[in-house]
Design goal:
The complex is a heterotetramer of chains A (314), B (498), C (554) and D (273). Chain A has 314 residues and is an all-alpha fold. In chain A, 77% of the residues lie in helices and 0% in strands. In chain A, helix 6 packs antiparallel against helix 7, helix 6 runs antiparallel to helix 11 and helix 8 packs across helix 9. The longest helix of chain A has 36 residues. Chain B is 28% helix and 22% strand. Chain B is built from 15 helices and 18 strands. Chain B is globular, with a radius of gyration of 23 Å. With 554 residues, chain C is α/β, with parallel strands linked by helices. Chain C has a six-stranded mixed β-sheet, with helices on both faces. A six-stranded mixed β-sheet of chain C has the order 16-17-18-13-19-20, with helices on both faces. In chain C, strand 21 and strand 22 form a beta hairpin. Chain C is globular and about 75 Å long. Chain D has a single domain, classed as MetI-like fold, CATH 1.10.3720. Helices cover 74% and strands 0% of the residues of chain D. In chain D, helix 1 crosses helix 9 and helix 7 packs antiparallel against helix 9. Chain D starts with 5 loop residues before the first helix and ends in a 6-residue tail after the last helix. Classes of the chains: A mainly alpha (314), B alpha+beta (498), C alpha/beta (554), D mainly alpha (273). Bound molecules: adenosine-5'-triphosphate (2 copies) and magnesium ion (2 copies). The site of one adenosine-5'-triphosphate has 12 residues of chain C, from strand 12 and helix 10. Chain A: It comes from Billgrantia endophytica.
């Protein structure tokens, strides 16, 4: 399996290359000059030229690209134009924040959604099922930033139970750190579990129709075992794929949630980088995210056969 | 808030850029650094220059030699005593092109002012010589964006000359910097204060708070929430955000005008807008008072002047602006043959400036007299790009504070062919500014400032409506957190009571 | 064993199932004695599956209204008492399902699935369970190999999976086994083998069996009693021999009529050239291309020659995967010949110019195996039948419409079907539409690839009759592909037997069927159960006797 | 277990919700209670009352009028996005699925690249290039969604290409373009429609999220997203500014989701009579 992953990673190199070219071009085409932004409204031609030269922004694009990729290949993502920080550690630190939220949220969402979805399917068309489907459709229809705002208003301001600003990492102070994670995690859990419940429900329905479920029942297997042992592994396949996509999207796309809760995550780093035209930061983030996305998908593909042995053959 | 004066948490909307004053900086960086480092001189509350590390200074008859007499007993954060030797060392470091000091060009003759030599005749005296007399030396030295030409200890850099961390003489020592999250400043217990009362960045400073925690919170709504919940003790806010804090128990507000100027830039080279009658019509169409109050939650002070109201240079003359006269505006438009051609006003929605509000309100008023104004919001980076290329018709823009009137006018005036970002291209004005920067006598300077103001109002290359508004919002146990001409908080004046 | 046994193993009475106010099983009562094998036959949709599933409380969700009771081993159960029925599952009542591809859980190793039942119903140690499982696997004809238990279902063929299914049910030694069309999805030879295995096992264990099928001839072989269902009702039941000899209900008679019977066919008129001739055709499928490795191509058809004359039907039979469909595809131009020659009216296709080749294409039509996937689900019947006519430039709209009406009538569907969509038709009706589409342009040659294997017996009969009738009218040459010798008996003039891409036997129909020379042909024939018509009416089971009886089931 | 008939209910409810919003959008094109852009400095931040049913915003603009105006902007952007994505995706998907070979590999490489760029990021990047005009957003979001369309169309085309009825059409002698147009494309429709409805939902969310991050449709033109974003400044004392746009977004999504579900059920062959 390890070898398989390595091979898939190798196969995704052309994609990464394309991604890097795209990112690079995209950024250069955007109006806005990092040097100008750095110096503000009083920049003079000389000072601008000096900053550009310092950042290597005065070189022709192909040369800039080659320098950048050359450095990246050596594991050096460069330094931020704005803050001069080294980018790779910066990305990793910010990613840690995002990851801790997303990972916790996805795990909780999956733990809730999978049994709920299966029970809804098992009790198809019952009142319970209709209720669960209605709730999950409702949750699905609330954008995360709106949900976050409402939570913030209620738990942070109205009840004052949870801190509304700042962030303390878990490593720093575990208990306080947890407090800062609660609302973002709840937001993501609520929003994502809607999708997951529906997915799990429909794939379970699909599976419950099949003969091997009847066969297991005919053998005298109890309903709980039928669901857990016979239906689950088969119904989980599509949900797993969805989880992968979701994870990929969340790891990069929770800029809005990070904005609402002012979390120093990867999404905000990217958005701020874009605002500040901090080329190295944006390039680094996007490349990192693309690689992450590819990696997540590969890993998901790799663990898929655990749930569906047929996949291995294709 | 366990005990009085223990810790105060201040919110700041973005992280600072570096710890090297005047090099890689922005307004926030300056704000933090002003707690850590000091220069020979600094700005007072009203934008005039006062001594800081210098006890006093003399200027020679010919205006070419400045002699600074240093205060005695001032210590660096590492315990060493500040002497003339360190002033010269610091100066040399800033003037070294390697350092990439932002203000290098302002002192090496590139722009005009040229310092030819700095020396230390004795331990407590520093002399500076100029190539030509200039009124701008002290004003430039006092600029926060130049890092007030900070006097720092050589241990601030390593053997190769790379910057490590500022070891200055300010009331606070630089503590911990957790990028993008928080900055900690620790009280400098051995700080020796001047005797005068606090005045702007100079005067007496009595740090009392042990730890100042500066929290980076980009989102103003969150700052508001944090102030309400008590997670944040104090913050400087824009006028719009302060509104929701009015009447909130436990939170107090204080308002002051600052050195920013908000207004609409007009591209005088635009085929349509090159007609002074149309520009004039716009000026007459806008009710300055309404525009100022409406876009600042009623906190701004209406003024068409380029000199902010809180400045020492703001006088009766500067209070003269445009009369609101929509009828006259319509007549002028008709005269100019304006025919409903669309005019684009570029604005941005950065939370720190009222750019968008000004544009929206101006749009409404311009439309009232038949000017087809259309607001187009852009991301700041894009707007700034347009600004620096001069590619716009109109633009809602906020100028960052300058303390000296010559610098204020220099911000807006210049030759567009050479510097497209300049808005007011008037050779007569350029000459006047040159004269202003050479003149030292206050009365003559005021006369020049007045003349420039009148010319600007006449020419209408841009429309100022009001200077920026700083709102200090703080929990009620915080004292001395006051807004002022310079926008940044001054924590050395703050104490807490429980 | 007979009905008047004092206490039967199972006695069902008043079983009624309703779906949306429609009775799909109507007051069904029957009994099964200890150790007896009975069969339930009836056309598709007659309620066989639902009736038997309800005994185990295994009705699909949404189907649940029922009345009825059953007496099993002296205890009474209400059929709507799911909890009570659940206690019977596995060790008392076992069920084997129709579709081997979906009856084993693809996510679990077969060892786990085999252990599961035993674990539930016995207190055996793991080692002992495994011993039994391996023994059972051997009994059903698989290797006694522990490694098998580690495999997943997808690693087995359909026949093997069905054997595993049977093993898993038999392991629990239920007193009564319900086998719902256990072999319909398998090819004839495998079907026979699986059936034999299953019944040998049940007989050995003294289990009673309910065998469900729509193939009367097949079940007659194995069951002592037959129940005939029609539209949810039990219309007739009795001892197999007696029922076959004297069917009373018209529906039973119709079922029996549908049995394949050899009929004399008018020999085709002699012609100068065969319509189609294939000479030493070789067809290869490109293997998967890999970088830096030679591409291995697969030879699906190896040097096949055949001829079909005007008005003649030639049957191509062979096991699954022997290359029959490939030959058909090559003829209609869907896959290219690797080598060899194809001639049309005595002229080689390779030498023809484009327009003549096109004429040939237009003159050659195909009827596919699966009526459910061969019609575009988004088109109305009229559009479907009209499709081939659109290429005939000589016809205008009106003429095309007229032809469509004519053809649809010829295949036995009324014009009222023209506006329907395929999903609104039954399987038989769909296949008629497919035939209408094929003959609409009056082609000279038709390839029919297993045209009836997806249909039930009665419908199959109708379709074949229709084909014979249409051939008589239009005189097209027909290449019929099938693995069902019953079909061959009914309509083919000549037979070609294929095995692994080669033709292993060919000849006149009677000659091949009565005196097969090749072992594979014999096996095929052996697996075809036969009922013979009696002179005095009714039918009797007939054992096929072949000259030089050879190959036994593996 | 009691049977509740769900499908008609969700179609009804979804249709109703979307219907109301679409009607509001269409009415908003020709008439709104007040001019949505007209500011009234004296009437700022008025709570909902009989004159301004949904209150006024920080410039005294009528919230109801703005919501109606925004409805058209938001819905038309989402719709255009989906149409553009479907149009581009179908072409690419068909080409790549039908032709296979080099074209296929090229198209798949590009789609994979785009997929590795998570949607909203791609939009973010593109928006800065294209400028955040309405069409910039449509283009950016469409580009982000095209890969999913390509994938689904390509998959369907590849499976249909070998299907029995396509072979039947080939045997009849029909040309490949004819088969493509008549048999393959129409049969891609069902999965496409289902995908398109969920994309409509994503587009509404994405447009709002972009506006929320300040990259969406530039104000003063209202969209639900930028109204919601702007409301944050006055969250504590003008909650209606946040509530109503949020509700509109949620209703639109709910409508789309419910309708999508109903459509999915309807198009599912198992549900057919
Ligand atoms: N889940 C279901 N929902 C609704 N109707 C059903 C369902 N299952 C079966 N039916 C209907 O019940 C009737 C009896 O079906 P059943 O499956 O018992 O027939 P069968 O005799 O087993 O047919 P076959 O030979 O095709 O397997 C049919 O008309 C069928 O359409
Ligand atoms: N497209 C293909 N690519 C590669 N190999 C193929 C392809 N189609 C068929 N084959 C192989 O060619 C051989 C002959 O297949 P073909 O479909 O002609 O058999 P068949 O006799 O029609 O079988 P069945 O009775 O199951 O329909 C088989 O081994 C099959 O696996
Ligand atoms: Mg059945
Ligand atoms: Mg075949």
């Amino acid at each position: 399996m390890f070898l398989h992953i390595v091979r898939r990673l190798g196969a995704s190199l052309p994609t990464l290359f394309l991604v890097s070219v795209l990112i690079f071009l995209l950024l250069r085409l955007v109006p806005g000059d990092p040097a100008q932004l750095l110096l503000g409204d009083l920049a003079t031609e000389q000072s601008l030229a000096r900053v550009r030269q310092q950042m290597g922004l005065d070189l022709p694009w192909p040369q800039q690209y080659l320098i950048w990729t050359g450095q990246v290949l050596q594991g050096d993502f460069g330094r931020s134009i704005q803050t001069g920080q080294e980018i790779l550690p910066l990305i990793l630190r910010r990613f840690g924040v995002t990851l801790s939220i997303v990972a916790v949220a996805i795990v909780i969402a999956a733990l809730i959604a999978i049994p709920v979805g299966m029970i809804a399917a098992w009790k198809q068309n019952s009142r319970l099922d209709v209720g669960l489907v209605a709730i999950s459709t409702l949750l699905l229809s609330i954008p995360s930033f709106w949900m976050g705002l409402l939570l913030l208003l209620f738990f942070g301001l109205h009840l004052g139970w949870l801190p509304v600003v700042g962030y303390v990492s878990l490593a720093e102070n575990f208990q306080r750190g947890l407090l800062y994670l609660i609302m973002p995690v709840i937001t993501l859990v609520l929003v994502e579990s809607g999708t997951l419940v529906r997915m799990m429900r429909s794939s379970t329905l699909e599976v419950l129709r099949l003969d091997y479920i009847s066969h297991a029942r005919a053998k005298g297997v109890g309903e709980r075992t039928v669901l857990a042992r016979h239906a689950f592994p088969n119904a989980f396949g599509p949900t797993l794929t969805l989880l992968g996509i979701m994870l990929g999207n969340l790891l990069s796309g929770i800029a809005v949630v990070e904005t609402v809760f002012t979390l120093p995550g990867l999404g905000r780093l990217l958005v701020e980088g874009i605002y500040a035209r901090d080329y190295p930061v944006v390039q680094g983030c996007m490349l990192f995210i693309a690689a992450l996305y590819i990696l997540v998908n590969i890993v998901i593909d790799a663990i898929h056969p655990l749930f569906d042995p047929r996949v291995k053959d294709t | 808030q366990a005990a009085s004066n223990e810790t105060v948490t201040v919110a700041m909307n973005a992280d600072m850029r570096s710890t090297q004053p005047g090099v890689n900086r922005d307004g926030n960086t300056d704000g933090v650094m002003m707690h850590v480092v000091e220069g020979l001189v600094g700005y007072r509350e009203d934008g005039s220059v006062g001594p800081m590390l210098a006890e006093r200074y003399d200027i020679s008859e010919d205006g070419l030699t400045y002699t600074f007499h240093l205060r005695e007993g001032v210590r660096f954060h590492n315990g060493e005593t500040m002497t003339a030797e360190y002033v010269v060392w610091s100066w040399d470091r800033w003037m070294d092109p390697e350092t990439e000091w932002r203000c290098l060009a302002d002192f090496d003759g590139t722009v005009g002012l040229e310092v030819t030599g700095v020396s230390a005749p004795d331990e407590h005296t520093v002399t500076m010589t100029l190539a030509e007399p200039s009124a701008l030396l002290l004003a430039t030295m006092a600029r926060p964006d130049c890092g007030v030409v900070a006097v720092v200890h050589p241990d601030s850099v390593d053997e190769e000359g790379n910057w490590i961390e500022p070891i200055g003489t300010g009331p606070y020592k630089f503590g911990r910097w957790d990028h993008n999250r928080s900055i900690e400043l620790n009280r400098f217990h051995d700080y020796v204060s001047r005797d005068e009362p606090m005045d702007g960045y100079v005067g007496g400073k009595q740090p009392t708070i042990e730890t100042v925690r500066i929290l980076i919170v980009p989102d103003p709504a969150t700052v508001v929430a944090g102030l309400q919940s008590g997670d944040i003790d104090a913050a400087m806010l824009g006028s719009a955000d302060s509104r929701s804090l009015r009447g909130v128990p436990g939170v107090e507000l204080a308002v002051a005008s600052n050195g920013q100027r908000n207004g609409l830039l007009i591209q005088t080279q635009d085929p349509l807008l090159s007609d002074p009658r149309i520009r004039r019509a716009m000026a007459l169409a806008i009710d300055t008072e309404q525009a100022a109050l409406g876009s600042s939650e009623g906190l701004g002070t209406p003024s068409n002047s380029n000199v902010p109201v809180a400045s020492a240079w703001y006088g009766e003359m500067q209070a003269q602006g445009y009369e609101y006269d929509p009828e006259a505006a319509r007549a002028l438009l008709a005269e100019a043959g304006y025919n409903g051609e669309p005019i684009e006003i570029i604005a941005n929605r950065r939370p720190v400036v009222p750019s968008y509000n000004v544009a929206i309100i101006a749009q409404a008023m311009l439309q009232e007299v038949g000017i087809n104004a259309q607001v187009n919001t852009m991301e700041w980076a894009t707007q700034l790009d347009r600004y620096s290329r001069g590619r716009y018709q109109m633009m809602s823009f906020t100028y960052s504070p300058r303390f000296d009137p010559a610098l204020m006018f220099e911000q807006i005036t210049g030759d567009k062919r050479q510097e497209p970002r300049k808005v007011w291209d008037n050779s007569q004005a350029i000459a006047l500014i040159g004269e202003l920067s050479r003149t030292e006598d206050d009365a003559s300077r005021q006369a020049l400032v007045d003349e420039l103001h009148t010319m600007m109002i006449e020419d209408t290359p841009l429309l100022f409506f009001f200077p920026g508004v700083s709102v200090a919002a703080y929990r009620e146990h915080v004292e001395g957190f006051t807004p002022w001409f310079g926008e940044n908080p001054r924590m050395w004046a703050v104490r807490t009571i429980l | 064993m007979s009905l008047d046994d004092a206490s039967p193993l199972l006695a069902v009475s008043g079983l009624t199932i309703e779906i949306n106010d429609k009775l799909v099983v109507d007051d069904l009562s029957f009994a099964v004695a200890e150790g007896e094998t009975i069969a339930i036959v009836g056309e598709s949709g007659s309620g066989k599956t639902l009736a038997t599933r309800s005994l185990l409380g295994l009705l699909p969700s949404g189907v649940n209204c029922r009345v009825g009771s059953m007496r099993f081993k002296g205890n009474d159960y209400r059929l709507d008492d799911l909890e009570a029925l659940k206690t019977l599952r596995g060790h008392s009542l076992g069920m084997i399902f129709q579709e081997p591809m979906t009856s084993l859980n693809p996510a679990l190793r077969i060892g786990q699935q085999l252990h599961e039942g035993l674990k539930l119903h016995t207190r055996l140690e793991r080692a002992e369970r495994e011993r039994r499982i391996l023994a059972m696997l051997e009994r059903v004809g698989l290797a006694r190999d522990r490694a098998l238990l580690e495999c997943y279902p997808h690693e087995f063929s359909g026949g093997m999976r069905q054997r595993i299914m049977i093993a898993s049910v038999m392991l629990m030694a239920p007193a009564l086994i319900v086998a719902d069309e256990p072999t319909t999805a398998l090819d004839a030879v495998v079907q026979r083998e699986v059936m034999e295995t299953m019944l040998a096992l049940t007989r050995e264990a003294g289990n009673a069996t309910i065998l469900i099928s729509h193939d009367l001839a097949m079940v007659a072989h194995y069951a002592s009693r037959v129940l005939v269902m029609c539209q949810g009702k039990l219309v007739e039941q009795g001892e197999t021999v007696a029922l076959l000899a004297a069917p009373r209900h018209p529906y039973t008679r119709k079922l029996l009529d549908a049995l394949p019977r050899r009929v004399a066919l008018a020999p085709p008129a002699p012609a100068e050239h065969p319509v189609l001739a294939l000479q030493r055709a070789v067809i290869e499928y490109a293997g998967r291309r890999r970088w830096f490795r030679p591409t291995v191509s697969k030879r699906a058809v190896d040097c096949v020659s055949l001829e079909v004359a005007r008005g003649e039907t030639v049957a191509l039979v062979g096991a699954s995967g022997s290359g029959k469909t490939t030959v058909a595809k090559a003829i209609v131009g869907l896959v290219p010949l690797h080598s060899g020659e194809m001639c049309f009216d005595g002229r080689s296709l390779a030498g023809m110019d484009r327009s003549r080749r096109r004429t040939w294409r237009l003159d050659c039509q195909m009827i596919q195996q699966d009526p459910f996937s061969s019609l575009d689900p988004r088109m109305r019947v009229r559009q479907i039948v009209d499709e081939p006519l659109r290429l005939d430039a000589a016809l205008d709209r009106g003429q095309r419409l007229a032809r469509v009406n004519e053809v649809i009538d010829e295949v036995g569907l009324g014009v009222e079907f023209l506006e329907r969509f395929p999903h609104q038709l039954s399987g038989g009706q769909r296949q008629r539409v497919a035939i209408a589409r094929a003959i609409a342009r009056k082609p000279r040659f038709i390839v029919a690839d297993e045209p009836t294997s997806a249909l039930d017996m009665t419908v199959q009969k109708q379709i074949l009759t229709l084909l014979v009738e249409l051939q008589r009218r239009y005189g097209f040459a027909c290449l019929l592909i099938t693995h069902d010798l019953g079909v061959v008996e009914q309509i083919a003039h000549r037979v070609l037997v294929m095995e692994q891409g080669r033709i292993v036997e060919s000849g006149e129909r009677d000659q091949v069927l009565d005196a097969p020379r090749h072992a594979y042909t014999r096996r095929l024939l052996m697996s075809l159960p036969q009922l013979a018509a009696r002179a005095e009416g009714g039918f009797v089971l007939r054992e096929r006797t072949l000259a030089g009886e050879g190959g036994a089931p593996t | 277990m009691k049977r509740l008939s769900l499908p008609p209910l969700n179609a009804l409810l979804g249709g109703l919700l979307l219907g109301i919003l679409v009607a509001a959008a269409l009415v908003g094109l020709v008439w709104t209670p007040f001019d949505p852009l007209r500011i009234n400095i004296l009437g700022r931040l008025q709570a909902p009352d009989t004159l301004h049913w949904l209150g006024t915003d920080e410039f005294g603009r009528d919230v109801l009028s703005r919501l109606m105006d925004a409805a058209f902007t938001t819905l038309s952007i989402s719709l255009l996005t989906v149409l553009a994505a479907v149009f581009a995706g179908v072409w690419l998907g068909v080409l790549s699925g039908y032709l296979g070979g080099l074209v296929d590999r090229l198209v798949m490489m590009i789609t994979n690249t785009l997929l590795a760029f998570p949607g909203i990021l791609l939009a973010l990047g593109l928006l800065s290039v294209l400028g955040n005009s309405r069409y910039g957003i449509v283009l950016a979001l469409a580009l982000a969604y095209t890969p999913s369309v390509v994938r689904i169309v390509r998959g369907t085309v590849r499976s249909l290409r070998e299907s029995d009825y396509v072979e039947a059409a080939r045997v009849m002698g029909h040309s490949e373009p004819f088969i493509l147009a008549r048999h393959i494309l129409p049969n891609c429709l069902a999965p496409l429609i289902v995908l398109a409805t969920s994309m409509l939902g994503w587009a509404i969310i994405s447009e709002s999220a972009l506006s929320f991050l300040g990259l969406g449709v530039p104000p003063p033109r209202p969209t639900w997203g930028n109204m919601l974003a702007a409301s944050r400044e006055n969250l504590a004392d003008a909650a209606w500014l946040a509530v109503f746009p949020g509700l509109c977004i949620s209703f639109a999504l709910l409508g789309v989701n419910l309708l999508g579900d109903a459509l999915r059920d309807f198009l599912d062959p198992r549900m057919k009579p």
